# Entry
Amino acid sequence: MSIFLFLNGNIYTMDAMLPRAQAMAIDTGSGHILAVGDNDEVRRAGDRQSELVDLRGKTVLPGFIDAHMHLIYAAYRSHNIDAETCSSEDEVANLVRQRAAQTPAGQWIQGGRWNKNVWPDQQFPTKASLDSAAPEHPVALSSKDGHLLWVNSLALQRAGITVETPEPPNGAILRDGAGEPTGILQEEGATSLVYDIIDKRDPVLTRHLVQGKLKELQQAGLTTIHDIEESDALNLFQQLREEGALGVRVNMILPRHMLPELRDLGLRAGFGDDMLHLGGIKIFADGTLGSQTAAMLDGFEGNPGNRGILVLPEQEMKETVSVAAELGMSIAIHAIGDRAAHVALNSFEQAQRHLADTQTTKAPRLRYRLEHVQLITPEDLERMHRLGVVASVQPYHAVADRDIAERYWGRRHRHAYAYHTMQQMGIPLALGSDAPVETFDPMRILYAATMRNDPATSQQRPPWLPDQALPVTQAIWDYTMGAAYAGAEEDSKGSLTVGKLGDAVVLREDILSVPQERMSENGVQATILGGKVVFGEV
Ligand SMILES: [Zn+2]
# Structure
């Protein structure tokens, strides 16, 4: 047993019983906190072999917990080519040429976000430029809106698309005068011809990319993530955990379609250990705001006939939620529009009633969570509170979506992303990023939560719906204790409390005394996991 004594700090514990402390002792063998208090009290928890760490007055918080992210997806997003800022076909081809030089021949080069509408000639690009950039690699680059796929000759060849290929239903293969495919595939009927044959994720590459991302999480001060992904992620995390190479604790949230397999295995949420465990299942109730597929009680602004899409019929959602709840699975439902939230709450309400009727023992410790919960009626907010449903929210969405929220929701936008209202009503909040859709940098997320603005553009734009800003201490609490509660881990994480895991972050500046507008510049000096410094120095 090796005890680390962290002394002379400015510690905000997020524990109401002892909000401030000077020091803490952590047993790095078990990873648990032995003592929190002033230097003298904490020294008594150590022995002669204890290591002393002088915090030199630095500010310490519990490690941040990101309640909603997609890690493998984030790793690939950074790896893939991003052509969004390219202003010509040649510029994109140059990115491909550089990537080809670092990629073994025959391996796919993917990515996209190119947008010919901002190029000088606005012409469709062709396979020719990609062929000269990457003759030995199949290349597939999706357009910014995702409706076009630009490929090279090798990709066409692998997909078996030739001059003889008939026009697919629900799509088009652009061709030259001789009927030869030009390298542009339109809409799903055509793009799926290529997507269907792209190699499944290469496990060696995936591991390499994920390890890089895990380092970035540590650098950002994150000590736990709720990862919403598939079994390949769970499998990789298990391997990394076995090797002691995980470095960040993972609460795994698996997709709805795996529920029957989880039931067959008899698994319940919580299965696993301190580094990696099963958190629950994820259900989609609707689509997105940007694509106007969020499920709405009333139509979108200017398009009253469109009430979005409920991607799971209400009856089916109720059945799924009930089965999951009976198995003790936490349930995270993606709900962007107010109709999606309404239907999701109906299913939570029914499942809770059913459990109360049938469960003879104490109700299992599961969480009912609404993910995003961007628009919701006051009545349903009331119901969230009554049912104890967690609002798992991503403050960066609020500032990134402000324009489309106003455009597509009209006056309703004033009740959107209503974090402060939720907090005042007593609805438990958990903060997260939804990375890679938005940044997972906690300092920028805290800025968005407390300033209702994007630090990159705050000089040019006023805060958006500033009444919904969270007080700084509350936002930190939601990012630590709140997220721990969303993961049903509030007994072991979220605050610096004796008996909990010794996960903490040391900041360069005191987050509660620097001017708020400088919050996003505050940085992480060190990240501590189970008492061990896994990033930086103290
Ligand atoms: Zn997400």
